[in-house]
Amino acid sequence: MVALAVILSDLLFGMMLGCVFAVVAHGLNLIWGVVKVVNIAHGEFIMLGAYGAYFLNVFGGFNPLLSAVVDGALGIFVGYAFYFSFLHRELRGKERITLRSEMVTLVSTFGLSLFMSNLAVVAFTGDFVGINWSPGTVALGFLELPLGALYVTILAVLIISTSVVFLDRTYIGNAIKAYSQDITATQLVGANPTKVASLATALGFSITMAGGALLTVWIPTGINPYMGALYAPISFVIVVLGGPGKMLGSLLGGLTLGVVIDVLQAFVPVSLAYAVAFLLLIPVLLFRPEGIVK
Known about the structure:
The chain has a domain of about 190 residues. It has twelve helices and two strands. The protein is globular and about 60 Å long.
């Protein structure tokens, strides 16, 4: 009975952690799947969202859930700025994303990643900070679940499901999906490719920064300028597991990674649990490179 309780606890906490991982990766998935740009600086924008939540808590008393809303709104503007500063000049007027465009955007976002991480060290120092938010627990049978983590899980799933409905059921969402498949066809149906690509990028950044705020519930003392170095690889693994551009793939990939990491931590050190979870990429890339979602 005790062993069963431990296994069920690990599975449940792994799923909750996986949902947070999923929403953090979902913004990357949207940009990668639609605009075909691999944003190497993704981790730094997760870090920016986490610090946004921290300062909103310190100066405004916001909890991470409210901070996620504010971070998401700010992410829209950050995303537009990112697109027109780093992507527009290279992508405008092109009927498809060429290898040259991929390399240019890859190098430019890598440079942005280095700039932001070093600037964060100067601005925030290297000290670890966090948000002390604990709304209590709820009993679920023999399990005691922290309400903060439960609220974050619900909001993370809501963000992903809302984005899926938006892409599937709205004209703008269909235009974004059309752009991801054929840029020329997007023009033929009367949509402006620049507006569509910049909006998709803005939505991706909005979700990324909101995810950074939600992540602070799981790292109560872990906000630091270097956190992007951990959560960017996690995001890339999740997107590859689910399949770039497959929106529900973010959730499935996140759940898979979260459960594997949380269950393994019961038997091996945390760092080894993450390493083993990352090894999931190898069979996926070898046998199903398009991702586990059909």
